[in-house]
Design a protein that fits this description.
Helix content is 42%, strand content 13%. The protein has 593 residues and is of the alpha/beta class. The protein has two domains: 141 residues, no CATH class; 275 residues, Rossmann fold (3-Layer(aba) Sandwich), CATH 3.40.50.
């Protein structure tokens, strides 16, 4: 019988191994405070910014030997720094004891190296940053996920307190202020006020662009509109087009025109010039009235509706579908749904292409620092109050993943130097954010990111059908990007373990956007790796045999796609009597803010 008050057995266990495995005082101390901090964090820090760092501090306190070793290493570097500073003050050359990491442009100005006082400030900051970051990545007694979260939030704090971000600790800003008699500071203050009014640190001047005038200018017609999306059919640029239509399912977390920027960058124009008949989705920017819209609605009234429009207007029995980012995830779910709903010869998609899309969310990349039960609960509570997730909140999260290049660079250049950011269409598109309905996005976060149910056969039911990716037999062309921190290519590769059809896999240079917006130009600095993939492959084995090719993967895609899209037929106009023009491209939903 147990002592119910103390929850202890009446007899003392005699298993010596069990006794040896009992936690010691240090472990009990650490666990007790770990639980206490978790309780406080859930109420005061729902997104988990401080708790992982405090856990790491406790872990080092309970490992004094390892902490001592780290402090000795730091002391050694500080001693070298003291000697380095003395040499510099005496006018003697000496290499930096803590070198700047390659690619870090914050300290590129010669003032940070030529003047001993600024050099000392730089080196002190780098020494503290280097050692503290390394300690967090190697914290004993913490899980890998907790170490990653602690290092992420600490890195963002370190980036925020860098001396380059403040006027009186930035020699470049002080020099510019003196050279311009204070005009740079006046311009910087105006930039600051403009950012304050916009509620964002602007990466480009929004007045430089206008959708429909110098962005998204490819001619076409909106041929269908419902409460969730507009379907745009583009006007042909060739006298004949391939019979099978190409339908692009775009992500609803951004607007579709990233694939139709300036004409020379436009994937849409490229496809039209290749003689393809192109349709694209333009999702509505939802408000609080759409709070109860579900993912079932997005699949049926969104993806499936667009498929039916493309089939109906062209008369083709099947479409050739393309999905980008979470549009690709939705397309994968649609493919599993359609292969369950329809007979094999009635599935309305002949083949499909994924662009930087995940189906397995077990390791979703750096965004994982925002994804745990507490963070998602807090986010869902916030969405429940408003009825949607504001796009600026998601954009801010993604910018934190690269805070130096996507936040502080613009603070320094705009506020301290008084510079106006140059026109950049991709950055304008990045700032043109969209909202997401509360019900749909809450479901998406929990069932995919948190529980990873899409890769578990029949674990996820959408629009009345249990989804099993293994049922997908249609050929797949999948594109990833080597520097993608939103959909890491090794994780995106996992689609090959599930889909049963023939698969061709591409690893493009660059990142999530520029790896896809990759026009064919000569000469080209871009490259890609490509090879067929199989269900038994792993990412490393595929990479070892995939040949590297110069230029754009768009050309390889055309070699794969064109033989599948049918014989040339007379080009169809953008609109027809059965599908009249509701608005000229780019439509009306893309203009909603």
């Amino acid at each position: 019988m147990k002592n119910t008050l103390l929850n202890e057995p009446d007899t003392i266990p005699t298993d010596t191994n069990a006794a040896a495995n009992l936690p010691g005082p240090a472990e009990l101390f650490h666990q007790t405070f770990h639980d206490l901090l978790d309780g406080i964090a859930r109420s005061t820090d729902p997104f988990g910014m401080t708790a992982p760092i405090m856990h790491a501090q406790l872990a080092w306190m309970t490992h004094p030997k390892e902490l001592t070793d780290r402090l000795v290493s730091l002391s050694s570097d500080l001693w070298r720094l003291q000697r380095h500073t003395m040499n510099r003050m005496l006018g003697m050359p000496d290499s930096d004891p803590i070198p700047v990491v390659e690619g870090d442009a914050r300290f590129a100005d010669p003032a940070w190296s030529d003047l001993p006082s600024w050099d000392l400030l730089k080196e002190c900051y780098l020494a503290f940053t280097h050692h503290s970051q390394n300690m967090l990545y190697d914290t004993p007694g913490l899980s890998e996920k907790d170490r990653e979260r602690a290092a992420f939030w600490w890195r963002n704090w370190l980036n925020a307190v860098a001396p380059t971000n403040y006027l009186f600790t930035n020699p470049v800003a002080l020099r510019k202020a003196m050279e311009t008699n204070g005009e740079s500071l006046a311009r910087g203050f105006r930039n600051f006020l403009g950012d304050l009014q916009a509620g964002d640190v602007r990466m480009t001047n929004p007045d430089d662009f206008k959708v429909g005038e110098n962005l998204a200018t490819t001619p076409g017609s909106v041929v269908m509109r419902n409460r969730l999306l507009e379907v745009i059919h583009y006007a042909p640029t060739q006298a004949k087009v391939h019979a099978g239509p190409v339908l692009i399912v775009t992500p609803w977390i951004n607007k579709f025109y990233v694939l139709d920027l300036a004409p020379k960058k436009s994937m849409i124009r490229f496809l039209l010039d290749q003689g393809l008949d192109v349709f694209i989705t333009s999702w509505k920017n939802p408000d609080a009235s759409m709070r109860d819209v579900t993912f079932d609605d997005y699949l049926l009234e969104g993806v499936h509706a667009a498929v039916e429009v493309a089939r109906g207007l062209t008369g083709a029995p099947r479409v050739h579908a393309v999905g980008y980012c979470i549009g690709g995830t939705a397309l994968a779910m649609y493919m599993a749904w359609a292969n369950r709903r329809f007979a094999a010869d009635e599935v309305p998609v002949a083949d499909w292409t994924l662009l930087t899309s995940l189906v397995d969310f077990s390791a979703p990349g750096e965004i994982e620092v925002f994804l745990d039960e507490s963070s998602i609960r807090s986010l869902c509570d916030s969405m429940a109050k408003k009825g949607y997730l504001d796009g600026k909140e998601m954009a801010a999260s993604f910018r934190l993943l690269r805070s130096n290049s996507l936040i502080w660079q613009y603070v320094v250049n705009g506020w301290l130097y008084g510079e106006t950011p140059p026109p950049f269409d991709v950055l304008y598109w990045n700032m043109d954010t969209t909202r997401m309905p509360q019900a749909m996005h809450s479901w998406y976060l929990r069932e995919l990111y948190l529980h990873n149910l899409l890769v578990k056969p029949d674990a996820l039911t959408v629009a009345g059908e249990p989804l099993d990716l293994r049922r997908i037999t249609q050929p797949l062309y999948a594109v990833t990007a080597v520097d993608d921190h939103i959909a890491p290519w090794q994780q995106a590769f996992r689609i090959n373990r599930h889909a049963a059809g023939d698969k061709r896999f591409v690893l493009s240079s660059s990142g999530h956007i520029l790896g896809i917006v990759n026009p064919v130009v000569q000469p080209s600095k871009r490259s890609y790796r490509v090879a067929d993939a199989h269900r038994t492959d792993n990412a490393d084995a595929w990479h070892a045999r995939a040949e590297e090719q110069p230029g754009s993967w768009w050309e390889d895609w055309m070699r794969w796609l064109k033989p599948r899209v049918g014989a040339p037929v007379k080009a169809r106009p953008a609109a027809s009597p059965d599908f009249p023009e509701l608005a000229p491209a780019p439509g009306t939903y893309v203009l909603e803010r």
